[in-house]
Write a structure and sequence with these properties.
Blueprint lengths: L1 H39 L6 H22 L7 H6 L2 H36 L2 E3 L2 E2 L1 H4 L1 H25 L12
Antiparallel strand pairs: 1-2
Helix pairs in contact: 1-2, 1-6, 2-6, 4-6
């Protein structure tokens, strides 16, 4: 279990770094586009398309981090209805369900990326379009993995007699 938790922690760190990097690029590039349009009556031709795809990347890396903080998928009202001892089992079931759904979405998005690869379409600067959408299956794979890891950790805790849910502190 420890190696999986180690991988999970590193995936979160790398996702956080990439999220900050891509968000910074988006802010600088958006500001640059505004300055170019308003003061020089020009813009970077491929800038808007690039920014739209960066939004996709930022969204998936945000989902990876949200999953780790248990803020991604919640069915909050049902957990209030069940006994405290049963809540962890409910969380395991919902996380496994979310993991399976993300896995299925990953499979579908792999097909989508393969179609883009076969079409050999170019998005901008002679870069194939599939480079920009590869984050879709990768993002779903990481989110599925993280949901699964949470479930396995909670199952391990139940086996060892710990039925308590640790509360995640959000800033």
């Amino acid at each position: 279990m420890k190696p999986l938790l180690f991988v999970d922690k590193w995936l979160e760190r790398i996702s956080g770094w990439l999220l900050v990097l891509f968000l910074s690029i988006m802010i600088v590039m958006s500001f640059g586009q505004v300055v170019l349009r308003n003061f020089f009556a020009t813009s970077i031709e491929w800038g808007d398309v690039f920014l739209r795809h960066l939004v996709l990347w930022v969204g998936y890396f945000g989902a990876v981090i949200a999953t780790g903080e248990r803020r991604h998928l919640k069915i909050e009202f049902i957990t209030k209805l069940v006994l405290p001892k049963v809540r962890k089992v409910f969380f395991i079931i919902t996380n496994l369900f979310a993991s399976v759904i993300c896995y299925l979405l990953m499979q579908a998005s792999i097909s989508f990326v393969q179609l883009e690869m076969e079409s050999e379409s170019i998005l901008l600067l002679d870069i194939p379009s599939w480079y920009f959408i590869i984050i879709i299956p990768v993002g779903y794979a990481i989110v599925s993995f993280r949901f699964c890891i949470h479930s396995l950790r909670w199952i391990s805790e139940i086996v060892h007699g710990n039925w308590e849910i640790e509360e995640v502190q959000h800033l």
